[in-house]
Every structure is written in C-alpha cells, then in structure tokens.
C-alpha cells in the first residue's frame, strides 16, 4: 500500500474514532445514522486542510494575543460549519458545545496519533547524573529529565 494513502487512512480512522467518542460522550452532539460519522470526520478533515489556515491567518493577532487559545474558537467554528453543511444528519446544540467538542476531538486525536505512531511528537524520559560543580561537590542526585 502506498505510504501516503496508509497515513491518510490511519489519520482519518483516528479522527473518525475521536468524532464518534465525542458524539457518544457529549449529549449536545447528535449524529444519525451513526455511520455518518465517517462523512463528518472526512468533511472536518477537508475543512481543516483548506479553510483552517486562512482562518488562522485572518485571526493571527487574536491567536498570538491569546497564546494560541483562540485556535479552540477556530476549531469550534469549523465544527459548527460542518453542522451547518450536514444539516439534520449532524447537529451541535450550540457554539459553546462545538468548542468543547473541538477540545475533546483534539485531545483524543493527539493521544491516538501518538499511540499509533502517526505523529511526530515524542516523549522521552531518561535518568541523567547531574554534573559536579567547580569545587568537586556533587550537584545533587539523580533525577528524571524529560525531553518533549
């Protein structure tokens, strides 16, 4: 199988699972029939690919001023746009719920992408001996060093 196609399918399945969990857990998300969640995640991925970057560019001062927290609002807008496009098949009861859903979808996708190796994010924990100071004393003890 083509590696690019494999990565696309893996990412799509991870995002579909994240949307399915969000629809199941949050009572203000409705998707009927449940198989429509595949189409919802595909549409959300397409909008993220083509529209999100322009939304971030337009809102760049707000994104910088809020230290990136405004991205939650942008992701909520995209989920609300999917709600508008899909009509009665996929419904979100309000914009606040769309923002909460975007946070939940993002967290689940992040965790699953790390577990499946589909992400470039790495977490390394190693033990390292602290160097001695100039007077020959030990600089402390052994302690964990976390590289993210």
| Sequence of strands across the biggest β-sheet | 1-2
- How far the N terminus sits from the C terminus, by CA atoms, comes to 31 Å
Beta-strand percentage? Answer: 5-15%
Mean pLDDT: 87
Q: Helical segment tally?
A: 6
Helix content: 55-70%
- Tally of extended strands? 4
- Name the overall outline: elongated
Radius of gyration: 21 Å
How would you characterize the largest beta sheet?
2 strands, antiparallel
**Helix/strand order:** HEHHHHEHEE
Structural class: mainly alpha
Number of domains: 1
Low-confidence blocks of residues: none
Briefly summarize what is shown.
This protein has 148 residues and is mainly α. It is built from six helices and four strands.
Structural overview:
Helix 1 crosses helix 2 (37-50). The protein is elongated. It is mainly alpha-helical and 148 residues long. It has one domain (3-121). The strands form 2 sheets. A two-stranded antiparallel ribbon has the order 1-2. A two-stranded antiparallel sheet has the order 3-4. The chain has helices at residues 3-25, 37-50, 52-58, 60-65, 70-86, 95-116, and strands spanning 29-31, 90-92, 124-128, 143-147. It is built from 6 helices and 4 strands; from the N terminus they run αβααααβαββ.
């Amino acid at each position: 199988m083509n590696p690019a196609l494999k990565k696309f399918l893996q990412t799509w399945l991870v995002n579909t699972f994240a949307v399915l969990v969000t629809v199941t857990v949050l009572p203000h998300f409705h998707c009927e029939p449940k198989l429509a969640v595949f189409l919802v995640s595909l549409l959300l991925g397409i909008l993220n690919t083509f529209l999100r970057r322009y939304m971030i560019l337009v809102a760049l001062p707000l994104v910088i001023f809020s230290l990136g927290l405004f991205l939650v609002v942008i992701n909520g807008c995209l989920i609300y746009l999917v709600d508008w496009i899909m009509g009665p098949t996929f419904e979100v009861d309000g914009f606040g719920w769309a923002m909460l859903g975007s946070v939940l979808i993002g967290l689940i996708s992040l965790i699953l992408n790390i577990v499946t190796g589909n992400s470039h994010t790495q977490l390394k924990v190693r033990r390292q001996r602290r160097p001695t100071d100039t007077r020959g004393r030990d600089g402390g003890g052994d302690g964990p060093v976390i590289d993210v």
